[in-house]
Design brief:
single chain, 341 residues, alpha+beta, FAD/NAD(P)-binding domain, Alpha-Beta Plaits, 3 domains, 30% helix
Length: 341
Amino acid sequence: PQHYAIGIKELWEVDPAVHEPGVVVHGSGWPLDSDASGGCFMYHGEDNQVVVGLIVDLNYSNPYLSPFDEFQRMKHHPQFARVLSQGKRISYGARAIAKGGLNALPEMAFPGGLLIGCDAGTLNFAKIKGTHTAMKSGMLAAENVAKALSAEQEPGQTLTDYTESFKQSWLQQELHASRNFGPALHKFGTLLGGAYNWLEQNLFKGHVPWTLHDRTPDYAQLKPASEYPAKDYPKPDGKLSFDKSSSVYMSNTNHEEDQPVHLRLKDPAIPITVNLPRYDEPAQRYCPAGVYEIVEGNNGPELQINAQNCVHCKTCDIKDPSQNICWVVPEGAGGPNYPNM
């Protein structure tokens, strides 16, 4: 199956004294516990702006984990606080990342269409880079579409030549070399998996005679809440760390109030009868926008869906342990509006 992570990031304007254009900071592990994997980043751009973020693999098992709160806690690390402490947050956003790599690529050619880029899952997760691979897959698709048009093929045909072109390109070679990166972290954890990946990527350049697989969907990795203590995250200080409401405001997200809710439940009873007693309804925490809340109703607890807060990350559709949430396309022009993100 495809595997995913949630990426949460913010754009900041910082003090020129600590701004270093072109500097890239990558890290892994902290603030995540040993049963969760992911990495952090900070990129120094132009005009005294930096992008800071955290990527959390969605195969984590602790239902009390909150990627949003882990990100807020991360910014208090001296490496980030040094840069951000005198700065101003400009924007906030989140999205799910298809990171399964070569092992999780679907059939990319189908009658009348092609899957390319992030829709197919061409991200090189080992390098945390996907723009160049998405562009290459688009170029290959364009070449094959042009070839089909020039040959006057009948509409609706499956362009199987695209799949072959993909396999013969440097894109296939690059993804093949990094194919074990994610499965190693999933199987062996951050410490051992990181050590394995360092050896494979640096000494063997990804050219090993075996392929690791992770055949368990991300949502199925979640364990009952009874197996973990509740997490007590620090309260936001309003300087480095913030709450979800103010963050959603910074995303400029907007949905017309009278449109149908685009977050649909296959069975409205499951959040309270299954997810709440077994997992303490993790939607309250894996959603980075405060869309899902457990509130007290006339007949007991109820799941309240604040669909207008949605930043279209699609994490709920992926991580819900009961696979009960269906994210559908909302009304046009709705959603977040990310400046310079």
